[in-house]
Amino acid sequence: MTGLGRASTVAPMRKPLSTLIALIVGFVGLGLSPALAVDERVIDVVAVTWPGAPVLPGDASEIARLINTEVSADWKKFTTLYGDTKDRTISFTTGKVLAEPIALISKMACVGVAATAFMNSIRTEAYERLGISDYSKRYLVVVAPRAGCVWSGRAQVGGVDSASGIMVLHDSAESYVITHELGHTFGLGHTNFLRCENNKNDGPWGDTCKAVEYGGTIDVMGNVSTSSPLSTYHQWRMGLLEDSQIKQIWQSEVVTLAPSDFANGVRALYVRDGKAAYWIEYRRKLDGVGYKPGLAIYRLDPPPITSIVSPNPEDTSANEFGALLGADLWMLNLDTYQYRSSTFSGGSMTGVSAATYSGNVSLSAVPSETGAVVTIKKKPDTAAPPVPVIVPVNQWRSPSMVILEPGFEDADTAITSFEAQIDGVVKALPVSDVNGWLPTYLSPFVAPKTVYLKDLPEGSYSFAIRSVDLVGNKSEWSKPEKVVIDRGRPTVTNDFAIQSINGDQLSLAWVGAKDAGSGLCQTNLVNEEGFIVQSSTAKTSPTFKLKRGSALDATAQIFDCLGNGITGQLSLTNSFIAAEKSSRTGKWSPADAGYGAGAIKCVGKCTASFSTAGRFDVLVGTGAAVVSAGSKVLATIPDSKVAKLRIGASVDAGIGKKPVRMSGSNFVLIGLASITSTLSPTKDLDRLPAISDPSLSEPKQIALAKYGFIASDFSQEWKVLPMARGTTLDDPSLDLCNGTYTSEKDRVERRQVTATKVGSVFTFLSTEVVRYSSATAAQSAQKELAKTLAKCIIDKGYTETTGTYVAYTFTDIKNQPTGLVVEGSRVLVRAQIGSGQDARQLLAFYQFNGEIFTGLYIMTPGEKGFTDLQVSSWHKVAVTMATRLSGKPA
User: Fold this and answer.
1) What is the pLDDT of residue 6?
2) CB within 8 A of 513, min separation 6: which ones?
3) What are the CA-CA distances from residue 489 to residues 215, 286, 486, 539 (Å)?
């Protein structure tokens, strides 16, 4: 687990970056809306030291001077565009400066979670010493002496709307490092360099063409001091460039590009060529820049990790980039540019002509002071799109699911429409944007088109589909499928029947839940936290368990097999009187065990009497009987030879208790049961498509997944996915109270997932599963955890490396339920961490069995603690985790 120290605002690390300037410790999505405001921002400055540390590279007052002069001047220049009628200039000024360095207990960490934790804790400590309580709109520069880090600056990454941040200067007092790091606080990534060993200016990523981290020194997001304009890609990320000022090129045409430092006109081109994506801008001649007037071209499609050239080992061991549009870009060399390091680079990287490595696209430019006329020649797209493949019809479970397998996308342009063959008749289908689309490097501006189950017409028919691309090319028809599209929703009443009895547990069949079309496929009972407490896949009469004499309140979700559904609040209560509690005449003996405890069997003629009132069901097995009250026959129970529980009769004895008698020969009496149910008015609820978890293609992750949270544990509005680095050993598992856990080295495999939803009350809801090298290693981890907790309780917290004391206020967990692992194999925590605005509540269940550990972590913000009822609810979830840990069916 991570995050048990001070509250963290660091976004997960997407990829560790390189050596000389910035090591990005977080990533946020693109902000595509412009930020238009006059903006002067405040930067506070502190320094740190530690026992045995070298001298600082410069004092805080010198850094303050650089901020007020060089740094502020650079950002004014970057954000002041020629001809802009909107004042979007950003400047910086020094706020408060701490005169004396903050003395740390130990050396500053350089990498990983420890470095992130340091940045979070030093920020809080610094502002406490500066006497500033609200630093939500302030930046902090931390000046640190040499600590052996491979970077000169490290910053938390923000976004277009960010107005605060923290950066650490490591053995550096250079202004351009601060300027660069401030770029990260705006959400900017690095300007890197695409370098091909065959002296080509472009090529596929691989052994020949590499991604040189930081090497694109055309702007300040490389690693060379420069005041040349930001790339238009970085301007776009900052909101200084509108989407309308970017021209996406599909076919040959001529475009006039405005210079990169102009405010108006078309200022960037986007070209897709197969799986490669290009961003093109025009740079005019400016004083002090090292390039000629011409085009600057960048690749947006990221390299595989094996193609990254970086002195930082973390870069080459990072996770692969995904398809989402990232913060980084890779500059092409169109002229004489060379790069070996920050101290060995030079030459012009712009040009007036270029071609993509495929040869499908060529560009030529005629530059001028006010723009460049760019001629783009693109090989005509005459190829038909791939044949769409329909998802198997037996997997159609949601109206909102895409019915096409991946792979139908057009290689050269984009799919714009679809046609269907319905019983042989060609019809246009409705076109839908991909739901939840985020910009990708192959589709950065417009959501791709697709077909959802809800787009198909209702009825039973033969169905085939083909796609049409932007220039009118049509794919071949898909293989025809026989489909039945049902738009009707299930119907429900609050009718339940007892199906069986096992000890003190009743199995209730919801006979009032039906679907006349495709049948029921999923019925869930969900608690108020969103956890599914019971579920059934029965097509009729879904069955749920209820403890005898208890109540159940839950949100019911009922879906048919095409995902049409309804939801409502369900309340169930029950009473049960076992037959053995009756007054009896005749010869009786215990019935077969299959009928449940308390069932009795009549031999010969018998009677059994109960004092009861109201409505109830008479539960019987074999045989026949008569139900009467006084001389009035209330019901006749027909004979049965089948030895299983059945409802012999449903009876209303009226108001007020009275004797009710069952009489007959050779019959089995189980008892009287009463089920009371209420169901609020229902609402329509479509079943959502399952969220893909790519990590579950890995056998080790599949094996670990069965012990922790899985997607089906939660109501569908929740997402359960691995957290950043959650499938690696990069982050610690045990970090409670900042203890020392030597057992971390004995971890072999790890899977940590988080459960999230929009509007969740939880700041952190997660399970973690760890496989240790042996059962002995796992037990050592439990002992270390228990020892750390005991000390933390005595000390009422712990002290961080910054010297800051983090308070823990512990509360006992009462009424611990049975079902958890044994006492010596678990650690339970209920505590408040911190106080005031930094306070948060922690509920944690650490359980060990053999070489496997599972952790259940629940965190909420503020000083309001968990109620005993909430603790009890999460106890039950912890019992589920313990059951999974034991290998038994949950």
Assistant:
1) 33
2) 490, 491, 492, 520, 523, 541, 542, 558
3) 59, 66, 8, 14
Give the span between the Cα atoms of 845 and 813, in whole angstroms.
Answer: 11
Q: Is the pLDDT assigned to residue 180 strictly greater than 50?
A: yes
Domains of the chain, CATH where assigned: 22-173 (no CATH), 191-378 (no CATH), 393-485 (2.60.40), 488-687 (2.60.120.260), 694-886 (3.40.1000.70)
254 vs 85 pLDDT, higher one: 254
3-class SS at 119?
Answer: helix
- What pTM value is reported for the model? 0.81
Tell me, rounded to whole angstroms, the distance of Cα 203 from its chain centroid. 34
Q: How far is CA 71 from CA 138, 224, 338, 888, in A?
A: 16, 14, 27, 62
Residue type, position 509, single letter: A
What pLDDT sits at residue 166? 97
Which element (helix H / strand E) includes 681?
A: none
Which residues partner with 382 through β-bridges?
none
Q: Which amino acid is at 176?
A: Y
What is the arrangement of strands in the sheet containing 840-849, beginning at the earlier edge strand?
719-722, 747-756, 764-772, 852-861, 840-849, 826-833, 805-810, 797-799
CB distance 351 to 280 below 8 Å: no
Rg over CA atoms, the chain: 34
Beta-ladder partners of 371: 368
What b-and-e string marks burial along 425-451, b requiring 16 or more CB atoms within 10 Å of the CB?
eeeebeebeeeeeebbbbbbeeebbbb
Selection from 134, 125, 135, 132 nearest residue 165 by Cα: 135
- Dist CA 234 CA 221 (whole Å): 9
Q: Which residue has the higher pLDDT, 792 or 4?
A: 792
pLDDT at res. 22: 42
Average pLDDT of the residues in 15-32: 35
Q: How far apart are CA 139 and CA 42, in angstroms?
A: 6
- Give the number of other Cβ atoms within 10 Å of residue 888's Cβ: 8
First vs last C-alpha separation in the chain: 24
Instruction: With CA atoms as reference, report the closest residue to 498 among 374, 278, 650.
Output: 650
**Of the candidates 26, 24, 18, which has an alpha carbon nearest to the alpha carbon of residue 316?**
18
At 685-696, the pLDDT tens digits run 999 998 989 999
Show the CA angle centred on residue 630, arms to residues 624 and 634, nearest 5°: 45
Percent helix, percent strand, percent coil in the chain, to nearest 5: 15, 40, 45
Q: How far is 448 from 416, CA to CA, in rounded Å?
A: 8
Confidence of residue 277 (pLDDT cuts 50, 70, 90): very high
Alpha carbons 510 and 552: distance in angstroms, whole number: 14
Bridge partners of residue 707, in order along the sequence: none
Q: What pLDDT shows up at residue 367?
A: 96
* Residue 29: pLDDT over 80: no
**Element (H or E) spanning 720, and its range?**
strand 719-722
Integer Cα distance of 649 and 634 in angstroms:
9
Within 10 A of 498 (CB to CB), how many other CB atoms are there? Answer: 22
∠ CA 75-76-82 to the nearest 5 degrees? 120
pLDDT at 78 over 80: yes
308 DSSP β-pair partners: 211
Helix H or strand E segment including 881: helix 868-886
User: How many whole angstroms separate alpha carbon 697 and alpha carbon 691?
Assistant: 14
Give the rounded distance of the alpha carbon of 468 from its chain centre: 33
Which tens digit of pLDDT belongs to each residue from 800-821?
888 888 999 999 987 766 899 9
Residue 785 above 60 pLDDT?
yes
Burial class (CB in 10 A: 0-12, 13-18, 19+), 604: exposed
CA 556, distance to chain mean position in Å, is 25
Q: In 78-122, which ranges are E strands?
A: 90-97, 102-103
Confidence of residue 888 (pLDDT cuts 50, 70, 90): confident
Token duo for residue 738: 């900042």
